[in-house]
Design a protein that fits this description.
The chain is mainly alpha-helical. The protein folds into two domains: 79 residues, no CATH class; 64 residues, no CATH class. 64% of the residues lie in helices and 6% in strands. Strands 1-2 form a two-stranded antiparallel sheet. Helix 2 crosses helix 4. The chain starts with 17 loop residues before the first helix and ends with a strand.
């Protein structure tokens, strides 16, 4: 007789560790790179047709367009069912800290927290690396490393951007 249905569900769902989070990020990263290539080509074709020159990749409008594509990828999947394709492949879901589905503001706050905590320092690192060499960039990597390593000491296995956005990743049950 199978008595697994008699055991109560845990009060707090399991939280993924650093390895599953990193694997999901790599999976999504590959898809985002593909999305950005397609988005850039879709813009380049009409620009070349009209002006005869390729759009400059550093143009502010071009960067904003590509940032919008990345934001749309993550926000769209998170709002749909809390799972990007990378999270879905690993059986992980993004929810609010109380376990309810994320909302539009939740996703924007999470993306802004990721951008400020990790993206901005890495942009600064690239600048300082060009000026002073690669060793000068090392301090700018600290927020990225510490922000994710924080899950090893946090009682809820939350990273800094989880805490700032009031969201969490949880493992889906396999039954």
């Amino acid at each position: 007789m199978d008595d697994s249905h008699d055991t109560p569900a845990p009060s707090s769902p399991l939280r993924p560790g650093l390895l599953p989070r990193t694997l999901a990020l790599c999976y999504d990263g590959c898809l985002v790179v593909l999305l950005l290539i397609i988005a850039a080509v879709l813009v380049a074709i009409p620009v070349v047709w009209i002006s005869g020159t390729l759009p400059h990749p550093a143009a502010p409008w071009h960067r904003a367009y590509l940032l919008l594509m990345v934001t749309g990828y993550y926000a769209g999947f998170w709002l749909r069912d809390g799972q990007t394709l990378g999270l879905k492949a690993l059986g992980i879901r993004l929810t609010r800290a109380n376990g309810r589905p994320v909302t539009g503001p939740d996703t924007l706050i999470r993306l802004a927290a990721i951008g400020v905590l990790y993206g901005l320092p890495l942009v600064l690192a690239k600048h300082w690396e060009g000026c002073l060499g690669c060793w000068a960039a090392l301090p700018f990597w600290l927020p990225l490393v510490l922000g994710h390593a924080w899950l090893w000491v946090d009682k809820d296995r939350a990273t800094w951007h989880d805490r700032l956005s009031g969201t969490r990743l949880e493992c889906l049950s396999t039954d």
